[in-house]
Structure formats: C-alpha cells, structure tokens
Amino acid sequence: MIHSEESVAAELDRVQQPPVADSAPPVLAVFTVDVAEGSSEAYAERVRRVLSAALHLACTAEFDDRDLPVDEFPDWFKSVCSPNGEELKQFARNGCAAYRDRSGGQPWSLQNWIYRFDPDDDSRAWEFWDAIPVGPAQVRVWVDSWGEPFFGSLELLWLLYTAGALHIDGPEIRKAAVWASEVGDR
C-alpha cells in the first residue's frame, strides 16, 4: 500500500486530534497493550508524540536517501533507536527487550524507522487510527490495515514496545463499532 499525501495528512490529523466515531472504515485492526499500572495515559501520549513527528516529516520532508531531521522526536525515542542508547528510560529499555523477544529482530535505527513513513514506500501496511486508554494499565492501539488480518507492522511494534508496553496482543480485526464504543463521548 502506497500512502498518498492526503492519507498521510489525515493520519497526522488523527494522531493530533482523535477522530470522531462515525469516521472509521468498516473494520480496524487493534493491538491490546499492557503497560505499567497507572501509566496508560502517559503511554498513549508517548505513542502519539512519536507518530506526530514521523507523520509531520512524511508530510513535509523529501525522502531522498539523506538523513532526515530528528529534532521533533522525543529524547527517549532517539535514545532507544541509537546504537549507544546510554541513557534509556526504563520503560524504553524494557520495551526494547520485549520487542526482541517477540520479533527476534534487532533494534531499529531512527533513520531506518523514519523512512518507513516515506509516502512512496509501500512497506508500511497500516495507518494509525487511535490510541485509547481502557484502564489504568491497558491501551488499545487501533490502526487501519485495510481489512487485512496479517500485515507488516514491525515498525509499529517497535514503537509500541519501546513506548512502554509490557505485553502486546494482536493485531485482531474488529468492526469499527467496537472502536466507536470505546471512544464514548470523547
């Protein structure tokens, strides 16, 4: 799936301002994320902040094999994506280990991760829809996978784990009405 400029801009809007309930496609994919007790709001904000920086670059930068600016990314994410990663926050350190356990993959470099958001790159098979705390220790991260139950999401898992996930279930395809019921009167 190649992302259009319009779809990336709409995705950025959803990161910065959660969408209204009747705007969703018929089905969405959901990841259920367990976080440390009492940190679900902070976790959702960390995910949104990183995605906001990446999608802003996708809307404004030229992806031409040069390093892209990283000033807008939070320090904890820059550190976890660095080969040194000396001053990692504990949640990011734990998340990096959990990502390796689940995927068997190595940590992502920041530039490699950012390049997954190049609108002309077809390797990112999802678009962010919403992140909803559903309790003091759980967040549901909803994405549009165009109805596909299996899709490439390692870059998303990297973010979700390093933002502080203790455990992630999913993705599972659900009707958008399930997401809409969770957003309530937001």
Task: Give your account of this protein's structure.
The protein is an alpha+beta fold and 186 residues long. It has one domain (5-183). It has seven helices and four strands. Strands 2-3-1-4 form a four-stranded antiparallel beta sheet. A hairpin with a 2-residue loop joins β2 and β3 (138-144). The longest helix has 21 residues, at 40-60. It is globular and about 45 Å long. The mean pLDDT is 92.
Summarize this structure briefly:
The chain is globular, with a radius of gyration of 15 Å.
Shape, per Cα inertia axes: globular
Strand-pairing-aware structural class: alpha+beta
The helix count comes to: 7
The residue fraction in helices comes out at: 40-55%
Rg over CA atoms, rounded to whole Å, is 15 Å
- Spatially, the strands of the biggest sheet line up as 2-3-1-4
Roughly what fraction of the amino acids lie in strands? 15-25%
Low-confidence stretches: none
Q: Separation of termini?
A: 30 Å
Order of helices and strands: HEHHHHEEHEH
Q: What is the average of the pLDDT values?
A: 92
Largest sheet: 4 strands, antiparallel
How many domains? The number is 1
**DSSP E strands, number:** 4
What labels describe this entry?
alpha+beta; 4-stranded antiparallel beta sheet; single chain
Chain-wise SSE layout:
Elements: H1 5-16, E1 27-34, H2 40-60, H3 75-80, H4 90-103, H5 110-115, E2 127-135, E3 138-144, H6 154-162, E4 167-175, H7 176-183
Antiparallel strand pairs: 1-3, 1-4, 2-3
Helix pairs in contact: 1-2, 4-6
